[in-house]
Amino acid sequence: MAAPNKGRRQAGSPGRPGRTLALFLIAMVALTGGMFWSGHVTPRLGIDLAGGTSITLQAKNTPGKPNAINKTNMDTAVSIIERRVNGLGVSEAEVQTQGNENIIVNIPRGTNEKQAREQVGTTAQLYFRPVLTVAAGSPTAPQPSGSGSPSAAPSSSTSASTGDKADEKAGDGSTASPDASATAQGRAVTDALKADASPSPDASGSDSPSDKSSDKPSDKESGAPAPSASPSSDAATAALEKKFTELDCTNEKARTEVNQSAAPKDTIVACGQNSGGEWEKYVLGPAELEGTDVDDAKGVLDQQRGMWIVTMDFTGAGTKKFQSITGKLSQQQAPMNQFAIVLDGNVVSAPSVSQTLGGSAEISGSFTQQSAQDLGNILSYGALPLTFQEQSVTTVTAALGGEQLEAGLIAGAIGLALVIIYLVAYYRGLSAIAILSLGASGIMTYTIMSLLGPGIGFALNLPAVCGAIVAIGITADSFIVYFERIRDEIREGRTLRPAVERAWPRARRTILVSDFVSFLAAAVLFLVTVGKVQGFAFTLGLTTLLDVVVVFFFTKPVMTILARTKFFSSGHSWSGLDPKRLGAKPPLRRARRVSAPTDPKEA
Fold first, then answer.
1. pLDDT tens profile 319-378
2. Using CA atoms, how far apart are residues 22 and 30, in angstroms rounded to an integer?
3. Do residues 94 and 104 make contact, with C-beta atoms less than 8 angstroms apart?
């Protein structure tokens, strides 16, 4: 007969309950200590409990897209805004539509509300535009024209914009602009626009547009019909020059309104800050790349230069466009060898190009770590399909939520008290184990919720509190399953210690199946819902997992240890395991076999 395997623990044996219980207590102490060490000794509360900021955004039609405000774009905007805010670690932010053109964003108190507010309203329309000219951000005073023609710009610029070579010379000689750089920039605007409108643009110098202007009359004299677009083109050029010279980039309102109605293919005027923090104004050509061509973006620290930058990786199509535009710009003279990175109408960077570049780029400037990471976060989640205007910002008080929380906690306390009364009345001494297990589960739940606040941005809201209250019943149900299995074994005539071990495999299977169903329901609810309902699902799933941990690593070891005490093992009437009260059968004993005599004489 083979000897039994001494290295394997037999089914139903008690194992080492003291070690298991010690590991659980060490883990609980470590989590509690971590909570106090982190300084977050209370769970972070949602906007319905702690209050916060409510932002109302109104959608505006994108230039060139008059029917852009529709359900599809509004839903897309809600998704992008929600991902942006949650990307900052602001969980439990509520983003939802109101009516046909409004979006409501609720941000809980205790988060970086200012930072979140900036990202919420940022459209993040990103364009790469070639730089046509650049000047200081202050406005240039209008100069009177020597020939008497009205002009809001220096006379030399106005003359060049009309294409009259003679007037240009007269303007240069008769009226000298006090701001020579402004005059030169006005000429550059005219030259760049005419070069852009020409079939074969020439970037050799600033005098070529005037030569082209002088060539046009000869074409007219030859009998060729004059282009009908020429007057409107000249008027647009003059209007652009006027906007450029009068623009004051130090004025926030002027910066915001200067190109609000511009389309991607328009030539625009924009503002930006240089590395020294001084404002500059630009004339920029049509967009060559858009934000949709960016595949990924993030803020990183450039170790060599010791500055924060934003790196961008382009898509396949974006890489080809970027190589094409940088190849063209590298052949130009300054400042037309620069491309401006324009975000929501403002130039955030305008690097120069000396060679053809590949499938990545960087935005450098006076970034801090926060601003670089914020911009990378915005670009990574994409641009909003619509432009939004901030209609109102209100502070939400937690008075109503506090009253509801108080009512909910009172209801939870009443429910817990009823559960404890039932356990004491029905299970007597076993109720002490159940109460200890509920206490351990409560401590673990509270500690983990407090740590998840700064960890993943979890915020406790009213539905989450409801999920925690529901979990009391789930946890108590696991104890009842195990206690009833132990009682069944005692009714079969077994003593307490073997009954505890034999009942465990059967109870464990039932507990795991029950908790799996609860966790699966919570997971599905979390995935298919949004907003506050997700808080309920998350808390329900968390407490279900903790129920398994508490039953396996606390309730079972404690039951095994207490089964060795005289109070429980003797079946005391208040232990809850009295064999008489349970209707137990006589103890199971093996009857000694006696062989019957075969010979009558022996009997």
1. 888 888 888 888 888 888 888 888 878 888 788 887 887 778 777 767 788 778 877 777
2. 12
3. yes
Backbone torsions φ then ψ of 342, nearest 5 degrees: -110, 120
The string of pLDDT tens digits covering residues 70-116 is 888 888 888 888 777 776 665 566 788 877 888 888 777 655 666 66
In the sheet where 387-396 sits, what is the strand order? Answer: 94-98, 102-108, 52-60, 387-396
Radius of gyration of the chain (CA): 39
Q: What is the mean pLDDT of residues 119-133?
A: 78
Residue 446 class from Cβ within 10 Å (0-12 exposed, 13-18 middle, 19+ buried)? middle
Q: From start to end of 344-401, where are the E strands?
A: 346-349, 360-367, 387-396
For residues 271 and 258, is the Cβ–Cβ distance under 8 A?
yes
Residue 406's CB is within 10 A of a number of other CB atoms, namely: 10
Biggest CA–CA distance in the chain, Å, is 157
Contact 89, 111 (CB under 8 A): yes
Q: In what order do the strands lie in the sheet with 307-314?
A: 294-302, 307-314, 360-367
Q: What's at 217, amino acid-wise?
A: P
Place of tokens 């409801």: 466
Our CA angle for 300, 301, 304, nearest 5°, is 135
The Cα 356–Cα 206 span in angstroms is 24
How many Cβ atoms sit within 10 Å of the Cβ of residue 293?
20
Give the dihedral sign, CA 202/205/208/210: positive
Length of the chain, in residues: 603
Give residues with Cβ within 8 angstroms of 12, minimum separation 6. 498, 501, 502, 504, 505
User: Contact at 8 Å (CB) between 131 and 269?
Assistant: no
Distance CA 105, CA 460 (A): 18
Residue 160: per-residue pLDDT: 30
Give the mean model confidence (pLDDT) for residues 500-506: 90
pLDDT at residue 264, as a whole number: 81
HSE-CB for 144 with a 13 A CA cutoff: 4
